[in-house]
Amino acid sequence: MLSHGQVVRLIFGLKLRELRQERGFTPAELARACDVSVSYLNEIEKGKKYPKADKILSLSKVLGVTYDQLTSLTLSRRLAPISELLQSDLLKEFPLEMFGLDPTRIVELIADAPAKMNAFISTLFEIARNYEMRQENFFLAALRSYQEMCDNYFEELEQDVRTFTVEQNITTTAPFDTTQLERVLVEKYGYKLDRETLGQYTNLGRLRSVYQPKTRCLLLRPGLSGTQQAFVLGREVAFNYLNLKERPYVNANFPIRSFDEVLNNFKASYFAGALLMEEETLVRDLQKFFANKKWAPTQLLDLITKYDVSPEMFMQRVTNLLPRHFGLQSMFFLRFDQATAANDFVLTKELHISRLHNPHGNELHEHYCRRWISLRLIQELRQQPATTGPNIALGAQHSRYYGTNNEYLCLTLARARTATEPAVSVTVGLLCDDALRQKVKFISDPAIPLKVVNETCERCPIPDCEVRSAPPVEIERQERQLELEEAVAALVNGD
Q1: What share of the chain is helix, strand, coil (3-state, %, to 5)?
Q2: Do strands 346-352 and 331-338 pair parallel, antiparallel, or not at all (unpaired)?
Q3: What distance in Å separates the CA atoms of residue 408 and residue 431, rounded to the nearest whole number?
Q4: 332 near 324, Cβ under 8 Å?
Q5: CA 78 to CA 122: how far, in whole Å?
């Protein structure tokens, strides 16, 4: 990330270069007038050096501005977007090094071509405003890119879990004994656990936990399942064991204050998942499951029961292990939510390991393809009679994109109750290639249906679709545009 000093030097250099050019000075002329070398002036303008007070005073006199005007962090209107970016939390907190980017190189790019960088940055800001993108959107997108860049497998975190279990004499036999985590939090980290207070706040019903740093008290909502408690406690252990200082204090809907907070929350969640589902054991279980020649959904449900985790936790853990241990690097993970049967489906989580898969989340308020098993299972569950608990369904489907040969084996777990209650589905999609055929023996089971799918109804040309939720308005618009272009071309050519 860029330091405050780097930002100050860069803004000073940009302002100095702009004033020099406005006054008609060449670098040599200004350097001579201020009694500095041309190379030193060049380093100042590129943000590499910041002059001493006497040199700033000399520059201000030659350029006809006050000392304060030259040293302020305000750039001209023409360069205002660069100033806005440099002084924003986004660039200050964005971990450029994590993506292999040298912050000084970013500074050089801005300093070498401020006009072009200004136009580029202005374009990004305009797009962000038009699509109502907030800082947290950038942070979350950066986190997804980081996960995808690392194939969603983090060896250091896996090793941290192994070391922690040895140091604290933790048994990882499934299902995980949660009392071990309580012991570590209380005895090693001085926590107090409160399972009553949070239940008094009925307006905060979605919060499963709240951490109070002043008293080191962890508030747990009464009635949490063993799975929910295990994950919350696992994250708390991770924040302490990994020494993650910037962190959220609630489990959901927390205001994002920095990228470090987003990244640390991910690390703690990854640690908790790896702790509850030990790597080597789960890999062996998945190998047995994939060795079946027939699709065996009950065996997959049995694994979730064995580890006593939620379907989402299990499927996300699977995405950690498939690229590393099975060589399946062309895959995606999707989570769809639907508040009630009358609401639209919303893609709330997505991860595309090879960065080539659909559907992607969109902010266009379009209708996702109902041929996806992710949505179909939710709809089917909502039509079933209500039970005391949520209805759960597990399904598999070959999804082939319309007009292409791209086909994915999609494994989906869905949970729903009545039409007026929330529903969710999680899907792992695996590209049907030679690697998958070698690892997953039930891929050719005729019991797994094949569906031709698309991304959204608005962009889908499939004729007579039996589950279409909206007309193909975008396809129709593209056809009208093509007709217009063909008519213009004919007119230009005199046809």
Answers
A1: 55, 15, 35
A2: antiparallel
A3: 4
A4: no
A5: 10
State residue 253's pLDDT score.
Answer: 61
Instruction: Report the distance separating Cα 364 and Cα 135, nearest Å.
Output: 19
Q: Are 396 and 413 in contact (CB under 8 A)?
A: no
Does pLDDT of 447 surpass 80?
Answer: yes
The CA distance from 401 to 455, in Å, is 8
Structure tokens at 404: 């292409």
pLDDT of residue 404: 86
Phi-psi region of 27 (alpha: psi -120 to 50; beta: other; left: phi over 0): alpha
- Measured at the CA of 34, the angle between CA 29 and CA 38, to 5 degrees, comes to 55
Torsion region of 151: left, alpha or beta (phi above 0 gives left; psi -120 to 50 gives alpha): left
Omega prior to 175 cis, within 30 of 0:
yes
pLDDT classification of 72: cutoffs 50, 70, 90: confident
Asked if pLDDT for residue 125 goes beyond 80, the answer is no
309 close to 227: Cβ distance less than 8 angstroms: yes
Q: What are the angstrom distances between the C-alpha of 168 and each of 158, 177, 188?
A: 16, 13, 9
Model pLDDT for residues 204-221, shown as the tens digit of each residue:
877 899 999 999 999 999
Q: Is 451 helix (H, G, I), strand (E, B) or coil?
A: strand
Place of tokens 């209107």: 77
Cβ count within 10 A of residue 179: 9
Give pLDDT tens digits for 321-357: 999 999 998 899 999 999 999 999 999 888 888 755 6
Residues 6+ apart with CB under 8 A from 256: 135, 136, 139, 140, 262
CB atoms under 10 Å from CB of 63, counted, come to 19
Q: Do 13 and 47 touch, CB atoms closer than 8 A?
A: yes
DSSP string, 276-337: HS-HHHHHHHHHHHHT-SS--HHHHHHHHHHHT--HHHHHHHHHHHHHHHH---SEEEEEEE
